[in-house]
Amino acid sequence: MIIDGSEGDLKRFLDDLPPVDQVGADARAAMLATRSIKTTSKAWAIDMAISMVDLTTLEGADTPGKVKALCAKAVRPDPTDLTVPSVGAICVYNDMVKIAREELDLIGGRKIPVAAVSTAFPSGRASIEVKKQDTQDALNAGASEIDMVIDRGAFLSGKIGKVFEEIKIVKDICGEKAHLKVIFETGELVTYDNVRKASYLAMLAGADFIKTSTGKVNPAATAPVVLVMLEAVRDYFALTGIKIGVKPAGGIKTTKDAIKQLVLVNETAGSDWLNPSLFRIGASSLLNDLLMQRMKLRTGHYASANYVTID
Question: Looking at the domain 7-298, which fold is it?
Fold first, then answer.
């Protein structure tokens, strides 16, 4: 598959993609959501989901103390049970990257990456020079994952060459030092066809992950949207031999939600994607519910309300 990166070439490729069967996607996602799993499989699924969580705080009121507490939770989600795995990453704003990286290194979390939301998050509306500097600042502070947002206005108005070039530029800055996750804000893309086209556009430009949303706009990580993105990475792998990760974010709050995501992954992209290197879940409150459900499986009863920390 050879794409020269010109707007005309990109448009021809994207226009040739088969349209998404919206009714079929909705029905398949709904069917997979009804799948139940046995207790032993549920225990495995909970631990897998914990290891896939990008533990996130993206509030204007974030403080160094809050980020440090989140880092402690990321390394040891349940201090009373050391068999609980660490999370997949800590996700913060640029100005908190250095604090998070230093704290993780201090408390035994060297292997946990710090992801920085970048490129004028959450709107994506800034000059390319600002986006470049935003990305470089995050890398300089110790980020090893960059979550960039596309300019949805440019995409929806047909300026796909601009979107492609910006992703490519940011990926070039990341180089081998950092994974690039490209956020679409699927709630603003309106159609499943646009989600599929954005998925291919990002992958062609060099994305390591494609991500549903910022968590700031609804709807966010709906099951049909994640299904469409998983189909895209599966088919892209068949075309190129390159595996691209998927990160749903926004609205995944309970263990049931997380397990439904894992079923989607297994039944759509395949078991190779049941790995934190290829699937992450952007969340803040989800981890608490996973810990509560894990204790219920282990002890037969739910913990008291103060069993988990309030983030």
Answer: TIM Barrel (3.20.20)
